[in-house]
Amino acid sequence: MKGKLKVSIIQQTASSEKDVSLAITSRLIAEAAESGAQLVVLQELHTTHYFCQTEDTSVFDLAEPIPGPSSERLAEMARKHEIVLVSSLFERRAAGLYHNTSVVFEKDGRIAGKYRKMHIPDDPGFYEKFYFTPGDATDTQGFKPIQTSVGKLGVLICWDQWYPEAARLMALAGADMLIYPTAIGWDVRDEDAEKARQRDAWVTIQRAHAVANGIPVLVANRVGHESDPSGQSEGTLFWGTSFIAGPQGEFIAEANTKDECVLSAEIDMDRSESVRRIWPYLRDRRVDAYSQLTRRYID
């Protein structure tokens, strides 16, 4: 896509009840659309609390097929406001097979495409391997941009954001921008200095993807404290900080760490062409020398 694109990121709190969370989402999407947004991005797993703080088989009841009830409500929001909408849902693909899936809706409400999270973490408070199967790496799945009326969207999800390989493959496949629905926060017991290091690293790695690939990056993170249902920890304080960066990693807009908000900005989609002409990283890649990148480790 060429020219100017008005985008909005929804940074919101969530409820354990889907109807409550989706009502918040609907209200904030309407606010974004009223401001002129053409593309709206939602945070990771926005219809409920972040349930991966503990392992509980009853949580699989939250998963839905796609299309399904939540995707149909989101499709109606996209259709009503004539926006391209990037969502994030807990997908039931089959019995015993579940994914962390971003669904992209076109302005008419139809599904433009899906991306199933490829990198799945398994850390204290983020027990995602218990719930999610990684996406398939095929010709039609994996790191493939989704074509929409506002451009080719390189949608990745949360833990994917730490991997330069994922960002590069999206860029090489023609993505006009990188989009990261996210759920990340602090262990409330961490010291302030450690919290600052973690958040700074998270912002830096994603801005670096913009620089290394010469395309904008949009990051939507949730905000607020969510308790650990198991009671084994003090829960997670999600740090917000949703942001929009340009193709040189420059901040275009940034949210704070505490408040629910609609973060909106105008992106000049022509700048990627200009930036790539002066920083031609794709031209100078030594593709003949990178074969060992497919190895787990070089002993």
Give a short synopsis of this structure.
This protein has helices at about 20-35, 70-80, 165-170, 190-215, 270-280, 280-285, and strands at about 5-10, 40, 85, 90-95, 95-105, 110-115, 120-125, 125, 145-150, 150-155, 175-180, 185, 215-220, 225, 235-240, 245, 250-255, 260-270. By secondary structure, it is α+β, with helices and mostly antiparallel strands. It has one domain: Carbon-nitrogen hydrolase (Nitrilase/N-carbamoyl-D-aminoacid amidohydrolase, 4-Layer Sandwich).
Structure overview:
With 299 residues, this protein is an alpha+beta fold. The protein has one domain (4-286): Nitrilase/N-carbamoyl-D-aminoacid amidohydrolase (4-Layer Sandwich). It is 24% helix and 28% strand. It contains six helices and 18 strands. The protein has helices at 18-34, 69-81, 164-172, 192-213, 271-278, 281-284; strands at 4-11, 39-41, 84-86, 89-94, 97-105, 111-116, 122-123, 126-127, 146-148, 151-155, 177-182, 185-187, 217-221, 223-226, 236-239, 243-245, 251-254, 261-268. The strands form four sheets. Strands 1, 2, 3, 4, 5, 6 and 18 form a seven-stranded mixed β-sheet that branches.
